[in-house]
## 1
Amino acid sequence: MATNTEITSRDSSAAERRGAGTAERRGNAGEPPIRPPVDIREDGEGITLCADMPGVSKDRLNLRVDGNTLVIEGTARLELAENEEALYADVRSSVYQRTFALSGELETGKIEATLKDGVLTVRIPKRLELRPRKIEVQAS
Amino acid sequence: MFSIASSASDSLFDELWQLQQQVDELFGSWTSSSGGIRSLPRGSFPAVNIGHTPERVDVYLFAPGLDPKTLDISIQQNLLTVTGTREIPTEEQATYYRQERFSGEFRRVIALPEDIDPDRVHAKYRDGVVQIGVERREAARPRQIEIH
């Protein structure tokens, strides 16, 4: 179920959403956000970032570029029964957050993202004129 | 000299211990400090949360990017075993700056409460979270006794 996610400028509902997510998980308000593990690789055309954000659905993901900073935020939601109580928890926060500084040669307006099975993939292309070109060496 | 040093470090550990205790009180009974003998260090893949109600025990495995068909979930008495593989292919041509995500085989063994019914288990995979629900045995559930 891959879905494209629009890169939006500031999302005003992010704070509300985060609050709601926290309430749903109950009892974990005030926990620091989880820093999702990432893989980052670069090829000739751009940079690809993959982040593990289990429990986050498309509508609870907030991805934006703020100046030259890429901000990844999301809220996990588990299907809990009304009277469910925690017995054990490795994961004690439902909020993911991580930021990355972008550099000038990246085309921030053309970022594409997909979210599938809790893995966010972000593709940041390089500006066309700044992609590496093969320089031919002329024989003199 | 040594006694001063050791008492200073003891008090530091005391503080950490107290902090842990407070966290434990906030978040319930089972925690990492008094974790089960089969529990794995924090940060192991996949992370596990366990919740319960009088009727059911729910195990949540935070395992994004899996093909659920590759997951093997088995239960023997009250021991739940989950094994699987998450292979993240490496692109030879690319330059990697970070590779923090887990890749490879994993196995977690989780001791569930004694009163679960191993014949009534269901599992589903959504948004990268495996949810395994195990019903408790009827006889073990609390019953309201009416006075006539």
Note: Chain B has two domains: 1-35, 37-140.
## 2
Amino acid sequence: MTLTLSSLDQLTDAVNEARTTQTPLVDYGIYHAKLGHLPPEKHTPYTLSGDILEHYVNDFTVRAHAGITIGQLNAQLFEQNQFIPINCDDDLTLGEVINHNVYGSLRLRYGSMRDQLLGLHYLDNGANDIHVGGRTVKNVAGLDVTRLMIGSMGELGLIHQATLRTYALPAEVARVDLEFKSLDLLPQQITDWMLSPAYPSSIYLRRLGDAWHIELGYLGNTKANDVQVKALKDSITNIDDIELTDERRVTVPEHLKFGNQGRSWQRKTKTLVKAICPPREIPLLANTLADMGVTQIGGYPTHGCLLAAGALTSEMDLKLQDMLQPIGGMRQWIIPPVYDDGRTSCVTPFAPEQPDWAFLRRIKKTMDPRNLFNPGRFIETEESA
Amino acid sequence: MQTHPVIEELTRVVGEKNIVTDPNELRVYECDGFPIAKGMPLAVVFPENTEQVSAVVKALNTHELAIVPRGSGTGLAGGSVVYDQGVIICTSRMTAIQKVDLENRVAVVQSGCRNTSLTDAIACTGLRFSPDPSSQRAATIGGNVCTNAGGINTLKHGVTTNHILGLEVVLPDGEILLTRANQCYDGIGPDLPGVICGSEGILGIVTRVWCRLVPDPKAFRTIYAVFKSNFDACKTVADVIASGILPTSMEMMDGTMIQVVENAFHFGFDTSAGALLLIEVDGVDEILDDEMKVIIDIAKANHAFDIQFCKDAARRAELWSARKKTFGAIGRISRSYCTMDACVPRSMLPEVVARVTEIGKEYDLQINNVFHAGDGNIHPILLFNEDKPEEVQRVMQASEKILEYCVTVGGTITGEHGVGVEKLALMHAMFDKPTLKMFLDLKKAFDPKQQFNDAKLIPSDKMVVELHQSPLANVPGGAM
């Protein structure tokens, strides 16, 4: 039975119980449930629920339970004309977004969790409520464990509260869709845009049929967007291989909703892989995936990140890894293929070993010596292997 | 005098030209920008590459000597001071810009590369490395990483950690750790560079840095607004933040500082003013006038009586020069001063600055203010006469009271200078015992023998650092 935890007392009891019975607590999140290694046979699944605890409206910061979803959080912030610019799926919890360092196309302007997160409360292995960071926008007191927890996949502690920056809700979003006949033009084009008034707030790359589409978003007021969209149009006027296919103005909530709909292919697939490479290599990565017959491809070219869905075979996976390895890239399964024995990690590691993983195992042992939190999820220790 | 056997080993590793052991020369390295904390090192070594750093660390490890990393020594909290006859590893000769990759917007530098060396090297590209601490002409990028340095434009563009993609670090056992060290903007797993940023050299020594480069804004508006009182200026800052406009910077100077700067440099400031705000916005040129108008209206609503603005580079440079020269000017009114650093929620600024003034009165001290108001990062400057021990004591007590007050309103004991040894005693005001223990456990995961810069940033269970003199600094031109 999955425990639903909301109060600090419930969380503390759950950690104490886990310690006493030596039964790990496992929360893999909704979207990332299949990522990484499988949980140990004996474990207690749990989910978090929650709400906003304090919205410091005039300071543009918010403190919330980790169990609140991004959709719930933004819905309440919209009422104060503010928002969290992490454009991910609405049903992900704040804790999941932190644990998996989820970001969307708005990272280009607003950054990722490393740029938004100011403070954290988490329970450690001894059920101590650890509070790191705070609510100020600058803070260098103590080790920055707040940032260490980002991307930790819930292995280092049970995050139950977070304090984040919020931002003023821009008046509108100008969405422009461009079709690229060849992606070879893209890196230079992005550089040109970044150094000009055409610099967008977001860039999302999507494979639609046989064509590559770039969706640009400009978040601002009408006057600013007019200027920026004009600069964008001017920049592509004489380029035959780029065609403007759509242009519209929407509100930020509408923009985020479209984003949710636009990413729905990532949720309706049996396999989903995330590939990371230097941004310059995005054409190579995208074309490699397309040449292998992958039709569902989308991602964030300015951050060298693409997601690919569909029936990725082991052969295709090897080819992808061969392409990524020499350029310093890597791939990570978010929804891995399931093999005949029902397991995934025994056949295909969810991601290749990275140079710092041996060291991260040491940190895991330090912060979770009893291996209570999502054991083996990401960092396989002797105990969890 | 007998020479410690490690000296010969270190000399073999780095060469005679890259080691200092002469007591007279070592005096330069007995403190950093916090000169109250002093300790004489056994030696200072200047490795030229990562392999030398690793070999030096291994040698020091064998001899169980304390290891203290140092960049240019511009730190303001005593973070690079040696205790226990340790050895300083100074990165100031590891200055290479190894790669500038414009297509991926990444620069790879050795950690001793000065902040402005990188800025200057890429000036013609339209890109920049954004962190801009006032010490940037001298400060190394490795030092910026270890203190998670801020600066004037961090309000909009972020602090150092927001601009670091990856790190190479030599760990206390000499192992070379690469963490996210390539041109990628993402990684898998916990954000190790994130925890090394701001760790003040207690986890290892940073040897190479992968720096994110961002577009250098081309259009600006700089606003200069003068107020009768600190309160009105602080209220303006809080109101601008609440309006949703995110300026590049909002810097504040109080009335005494205006007089001091004007008397020293003759910028034409109104010396009858109670406070001055310097605000800058950047972005799309066509909308900056609108943003500027909103800010000016807010300033007027808060009783600003002289407002000027400019978009020309010369006047802008002059105004920022005034801001950056403030610390040089303080020496004209007081031989000794203590620059504090705390950060509070921006909405609390009016109350906090008022309380700082009250504390000054309670302790019969003159306290002036020049600070990064937009970040809520205050820098009260306590003036004193160091020849009067009783006055020194009052400064110490007032400093502590100010920081404790900042914590009670949701603030922190340091926004950008770091803890070093200066604020070690106040860590208990910020963090409970389990959290402090967790910090120490984490340090031990990196450094089981606690050899690396122990008793800095977090209280140690192995060594107690006692500041025998007052934790006060007379820092000519001190960075802020």
Note: Residues 222 and 315 of chain B are 9 Å apart (CA to CA).
